[in-house]
Amino acid sequence: MEYTIQLTLRQEWNDDRLAFDDRGVHEYLTAPDPEKIWTPDLFFQNEREGHAHSLMAPNVLLRLYRNGDIMKSSRITLTLACPMDFHFFPMDRQVCEIRLASYGFTKDDLDLQWSTLGSSVQVAAGLNLPRFILNEVKTDTCTSTTSTGVYACLKVSLFLERRWAYFLVHTYIPSIMMLFISWISFWISPESTAPRIVLCMAPLFGLASIGTNVNDQVPQVSYTKASDVWFGFCNILLFSALVVAAIVNYRKRMDKLKETQQKDRMEYGRDFNLEAQHRLMGPSKSAPSGEEEEAVSKPKPKGRPCCFGRLCLPFDRVEKIDYLARFLFPGKDYNPWLASNTKYWYFMQRAQNSSASFAVIFLIFNIIYWPCYLSKYD
Predict the structure, then answer these.
(1) How many CA atoms lie within 13 A of 41 on its CB side?
(2) Percentages helix, strand, coil for the chain, rounded to the nearest 5?
(3) Which of the residues in the chain have pLDDT under 50?
């Protein structure tokens, strides 16, 4: 990661060779050609690129004082490297440094120190960063050790705090709204398959788009960020809602298939019940007429059993059970498939109530997520 900064660098040192005495006429002299005077060979250790400003004239000022003190001021723009930690992104805090050292003179020849007169680092009034808040600026000294010697260096630490209100409005709140939209599908009739699937798929695609836009604002890293945890859990909830919608659709189709099979089986059972009643009436009773005569004359398919849920019985037993049920409960239609239908409606009731379960799970996740990451932020 890198950042660009524009600064004015002021250096002061003493060179007794340039001391002069003009009997107090001038407090200092301004050098017309600073390049002819010796200056420290300083460089920025974490510099990527930079340039000195010289649009209309070189932005360099060099003053010579009577006692040999020299002050040099120059305006430069730098692009510096800043290793950042994005574990808590977008609620992260970063520390970026500006490291200044001598290139060729060791610490025995050239020592670097911060000025003790006033503030060593002055921040421009009204400084406003679009993504960060500059909380604090600290200065320190350091040493740079290489194979050629030990060199003195100066360090400026910039403590930055990311403005995460933007992500709250454009990332977290929209993702929460998408989750609520997906939970609406639980209250839609299972016959409306298309609306249920659309209410689950559209938020899933929208959340993926938001996550892509957020990840484009930071470099790719190999570890998990706070935003990755949020979007990962939201994707799990959206995918779970889609799975629930698919299961409801599957159970509905299976129920329709059972209803079709039930009608066929009941037709066979009604025909056999008429035949059983004819047998119980005996030969002394009057012969059946109309529909009963036609039903009795039908052949009995002996090779096909009748199934009640998972229990399958031969036709002779079904014939006795159905006749006994009609005898015990006259005037009521005996429906042996009622148990399987009640299972489906019980499942539907649980599917509609699953929205509350999803909301509770999401609430528990927020109770864990926000204190965990905001503790680092605060």
Answers:
(1) 9
(2) 45, 25, 30
(3) 284-288, 290-341
Cα 154-160-165 angle, rounded to 5 deg: 175
- Burial (CB < 10 A; 0-12, 13-18, 19+), residue 190, is buried
Residue with tokens 């009995």: 300
How many angstroms separate the CA atoms of 185 and 183, rounded? Answer: 5
Locate 185 and state its tokens.
Answer: 């599908």
d(CA 102, CA 100) in angstroms, rounded, equals: 7
At 304, is the secondary structure helix, strand, or coil?
coil
Q: Are 265 and 305 in contact (CB under 8 A)?
A: no
- Displacement of CA 13 from its chain's centroid (Å): 53
Residue 250 buriedness (CB in 10 A; 0-12 / 13-18 / 19+): exposed
Q: Taking a C-beta distance cutoff of 8 angstroms, is the pair 42, 101 a contact? A: yes
User: Would you give the end-to-end CA distance of the chain in angstroms?
Assistant: 23
Q: What is the DSSP letter of 165?
A: H
Q: Give the residue among 194, 35, 11, 229 at the shortest CA–CA distance from 120.
A: 11
Q: Quick one: which of 79, 76, 90, 222 has its CA closest to 160?
A: 90
Locate tokens 């015990």: which residue? 328
pLDDT value for 243: 87
CA dist list (Å): 362 to 236, 240, 348, 368 = 11, 12, 22, 10
User: Which amino acid does the sequence have at 349?
Assistant: Q
Q: pLDDT tens digits, residue range 248-270?
A: 778 777 877 777 777 766 665 55
Work out the angle between the directed axes of helices 338-377 and 173-184 (0-180°, nearest 10): 180
